[in-house]
Design brief:
30% of the residues lie in helices and 28% in strands. By secondary structure, the protein is an alpha/beta fold. Strands 16-17-15-2-24 form a five-stranded mixed beta sheet. A four-stranded mixed beta sheet has the order 4-5-3-14, with helices on one face. Strands 6-7-9-8 form a four-stranded mixed beta sheet. Strand 22, helix 11 and strand 23 form a beta-alpha-beta unit. The two termini are 17 Å apart. The chain binds shikimate-3-phosphate.
């Protein structure tokens, strides 16, 4: 896929539903009572794996429209065992391991090559403490879970900031003997907590910890999924980089634990405005407008990494166009994503003409307020790297060829078409 340079991005768009919330709506809907209607559901590779998983384990899921589902709950302990292929979806694999811990039956959880190289002991270890039998394959998938109907509640301090691990423990905690508390080294996205609260579970949320009480039943009812901020991010970055741009993204999720990129862009001097802020089932939603201005260098600190973890590749690209030296620190978790995103970004952007050096935990980028030359980037099977290549292409002098571009369908099918609809050449 070749992305040619853009003269400008302008207009009004909406992006597909939030991936994290879409996964959770199906998982919690399946564990709930009665019907859960999901509107704005993300139809993408990762979230389809979650629908297929719940069907395999005994929950009925009706596709009622392109972006609507009805999930028929089987109750908190109602799943039966089986083999689930999680595909590329880290969120599904981590969360379903927590769900399976409190069910009866045997659960064999597999994934593609990328997912099978990602760490699973971080989830297995706390679930074993709760009383589940969890076997990993040398720390990775395939994972086999033998659930327990007598899980013990735990107080657990996460060694790494991970919303996926936190969520796995909280979901197991729904079927445990008492109150389960997870302490986080840094605040991470809290969609699980918010959805559990909306479903009637007693949840205590604090800045760096969360407690759930065992639940008699979940009543999820209806979920209105906002647009995915992480899917809006490449569009925002492109508009921030291409002179003359003026773009508005409507109905996008603005959960403060997801919008670290807005703070970083603001520090870089970007011209941003947020309108129509509102709350939908505990989640903040609004419209974001961005207009092009020249950017300055920025420092991203370890504490803010979880608030923009999936947007950090875009920060490296923004920094390549921002006058001065930028640094991203504390982002070593990027080495454990769909690919090693620190190396993928360094190699990819350097090949396009950026001055970027990797560190064990991030990058140092020397930015120049001018277009990069362009060239070729290998997405390495990682949807976020493919989207990075597309944004880099729009902002380049000669365009960017993306190898493995179709991988965007993991989180954002229709990405290239939506992008083209706001590009002027
Ligand atoms: C996610 C959490 C993050 C994020 C991932 C989705 C989630 O991962 O990178 O894309 O839905 O909980 P970690 O929690 O492992 O950092």
């Amino acid at each position: 896929m070749k992305i040619e340079p853009a003269a400008q991005l302008s207009g009004h768009v909406a992006v597909p539903g939030d991936k994290s919330i879409s996964h959770r709506s199906v998982l919690l809907g399946a564990l709930g009572e009665g019907e859960t209607r999901v509107r704005g559901f993300l139809r993408a590779g990762d979230t389809q794996a979650t629908v297929d998983a719940m069907r395999t384990l005994g929950a009925r899921v009706d596709d009622v429209a392109e972006d609507q589902l009805v999930v028929h709950g089987v109750g908190l302990r109602g799943l039966h065992g089986g083999t689930v292929d999680c595909g590329n979806a880290g969120t599904l694999l981590r969360l379903i391991t927590g769900v399976a811990a409190g069910q009866t039956g045997r659960y064999e959880l597999t994934g593609d090559d990328s997912l099978s190289s990602r760490p699973m002991e971080r989830v297995a270890e706390p679930l074993r403490r709760m009383g589940a039998t969890v076997e990993t394959t040398k720390g990775h998938a395939p994972v086999v879970v033998e659930g327990s109907d007598s899980l013990r509640a735990i107080d657990y301090e996460l060694p790494v900031a991970s919303a996926q691990v936190k969520s796995a423990i909280l979901l197991a905690g729904l079927n445990a003997s008492g109150a389960t508390t997870v302490v986080e080294p840094k605040p991470t996205r809290d969609h699980t907590e918010l959805m559990l609260e909306a479903a009637g579970v007693r949840v205590r949320r604090r800045p760096t910890s969360v407690t759930v009480e065992p639940a008699g039943a979940l009543r999820v009812g209806e979920v209105d999924v906002p647009g995915d901020f992480s899917s809006a991010a490449p569009l925002l970055a492109a508009a921030a980089l291409v002179p003359g741009s003026n773009l508005t993204i409507h109905d996008v999720g603005l959960n403060p634990r997801r919008t670290g990129l807005l703070d970083v862009l603001e520090r870089m001097g970007a011209h941003l405005a947020v309108f129509n802020r509102r709350r939908v089932a505990g989640e903040q939603v609004g419209d974001v407008q961005i207009q092009y201005t020249e950017l300055g260098a920025v420092e991203v600190t370890p504490d803010e990494v979880p608030l923009l973890v999936d947007e950090l590749p875009l920060v490296a690209l923004l920094a390549s166009h921002a006058r001065g030296d930028s640094i991203v620190r504390g982002a070593e978790e990027l080495r454990l994503k769909e690919t090693d995103r620190i190396d993928a970004v360094t190699d990819g952007l350097r090949a396009l003409g950026a001055r970027i050096r990797s560190r064990p935990d991030g990058w140092i980028v020397t930015g120049v307020p001018a277009r990069l030359k362009g060239g070729r980037i290998d997405a390495r099977g990682d949807h976020r790297i493919a989207m990075l290549g597309a944004v880099a292409g729009l902002a380049s002098r000669q365009g960017v060829d993306i190898q493995d571009a179709e991988t965007v369908a993991i989180s954002f099918p229709g990405f290239f078409e939506l992008l083209e609809s706001v590009v002027r050449r």
